[in-house]
Amino acid sequence: MSLLSVVLTLIVVGVVLWLINTYIPMQGTIKGILNFVVVAVVVIWLLYAFGVLGHAGEIRMPQIK
Question: Which of 6, 13, 29, 53 could form a disulfide with 47 if both were Cys (CB 3.0 to 4.6 A apart)?
Answer without folding.
Answer: 53
